[in-house]
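A favour, since you know our structure tokens better than I do. Go ahead and set the record down below.
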Amino acid sequence: MSVRPFDDILALLADLPGPDMAAQETARDSAGGGMGGLAEIAGWAAAWSGRPIPQVNRPILALYAGAHASVSAHGGTERERLELVAAGGAEVSRLAQLHGAGLEAFDLAVDRPVPSIVESPSMGERECAATIAFGMEVMAKQPDLLIVGSIGQGAGLAAAALAIALNRADAGALDARAVQAAMRVRGETAPLELLRQLGGRETAAALGAIVAARVQRTPVLLDGPAALSAAAVLDALAPGSVSHCRAADADAFGLGACLDVPALLSLNIANGEGAAGMAALGVIRAACALATPL
């Protein structure tokens, strides 16, 4: 039997671990009555860490930088932003330092943009599968909370096109170029094929990170269009595969119908580079503190 590039990811999705319901119940009870959403967050963190007293001591923000010919002719903007983040000069760099979070910024060939998704596929199968595998590598650092974001202007267009192609968004409310791109692949229903056709490298890497976190039973915060659309692809492919995820911020990207996961905050932070995730990290830690016995 011949091996296809996506076989490994499909095999992982066929055997995903579930939540620890006993830990979830214990954490909710420990958080106390009247704590509302904080008790729910404590339960979520416990369910996916497998610890009835959840803690977040090793959070990592993974930012995947990708460039798109449909947005810019070269990777200059993405390169400059990537270097600013790495040098500690970006807003999210300061927030990560404040919260004691690790920040990993990955260069996904920003000097070699993917083709315009309006005109042609973003990636071949092998490149897409390899980028998914690359995204998984962030979990080698064994974070106890993974925050997934991206760098690059093309992620929003790709996310909108994927949302339309997955029948999870109203085409009339999104960018006309996204509609054109989605129409180019009309009739295609396989979620990973839609990712290959319409998603950038940042979206493929985000998908890999989300899956690897699920395999290691690690809760995930989704920040920005690449992370949200990657999770939508997974949810379409394997319903329930993103129940370990929460959105950091409410619908700042017009993609609320794309993925039905609770949002922790509503700050309207629209760059997807992890600032909302850093703010939500404080909320998660507060929830975990409530679930910690005195």
